[in-house]
Amino acid sequence: MTQTLSRSQARKIALAAQGFRDPRHTVPTMRTFNRALSRTAVLQVDSVNVLQRAHYMPLYSRMGPYDVSLLTRAAERNPRRIVEYWAHVAAFMPVELWPHMRHRMARYRERGHEWSAIRHRSEVASDVLARVSELGPVTARDLDDGLPRSRDHWGWNWSDTKKALEYLFSAGELAVAGRNSAFERRYDLPERVLPPQVLHAPTPSEEEANIELVRRAAVSHGVATAGCLQDYFRMHHTAVRPAIAALVDAGELLPVTVEGWSRPAYLHRDAKLPRAVHARALLSPFDPVVWERARTEHLFGFRYRIEIYVPEARRVHGYYVLPFLLGDSLVARVDLKADRRGSALQVKAAWAEPGAPPETPAELAEELAEMARWLGLSSIVVEPRGDLAAALSSQVEHAAGA
């Protein structure tokens, strides 16, 4: 008989799987980092820096204030623990997943991702690859600055250089050694980025690779529909469904129904169902808990849309809005900006969700204070926009006075 889960149970399972029951360490270490990464599996990368870079935020939400050099060490120093690739979208993933991405790399190599013209002009990619081999970690700008500007011959310009680098990266012929202070990728040969045991690991069959990616998605989700599992590593449904069937046959995934969900769901056999989740965290728009918007709505009753690309006059909640997790519920959302010059964490707007508990303003004020300290900001400024702004401002002022 198929097990039935209430939405509350599914929510607790999902939050536990994502690491929101893990005890926070006073001083997070690389061991803490590894534990958090095992929960999220990937860390989405995004260039928006209005508050903090996207890949730093899920770690903060789970670990609390931590030294961001932990992530730099994990990504750029030996022994590398994570590497950037198109794992979700652009994302850091554990280095051991590189062999499981080789089939994806091969498809990019054949069809050329968004830069298919480069594939048909092989001299561009070949010359770029030779330059990277000669120079070591480089950005597109590094290569472009030293190349001829003339277009009399087939030439090279910045655009073609960047396209070639991205094509080679997608195809697995280059890897990302790190990013510079302008957040530009520094490309290098995979043998100078990846640990030897990863570089020389055998390539699993495509079926085995799909099963491993779905397995990791299932562990990170705890409970999920096929669509949720498909989205985690941005897989095709034709690859996901056979992998789910194989994991069900092996007893790793258990078919379940979830209250209010119209589609079948799957519970990972090792997923925990805690009696309660006592979390308090601000979640990045790119956090795995909320990045699949339909799942967020089904689990939390929280309709969430990122409005960065919406014209300002048409935004409902703000530019860079973070959901506020309290207990096992999303109880509020705040539009945040780090004013680094003024050393202030700006709350551009604050909104309460229906049914938010009375302690929401006080808890949110404490969480904002902790985030401000982590970001090295000395004050919090709450602007009078949103139905939670007045109560939140009062709590922030009270804490500052105390």
UniProtKB/TrEMBL annotation:
Pfam families: AlkZ-like (PF06224). It comes from the Bacteria. PANTHER family: CYTOPLASMIC PROTEIN. This is Cytoplasmic protein clustered with trehalase. It comes from uncultured Nocardioidaceae bacterium.
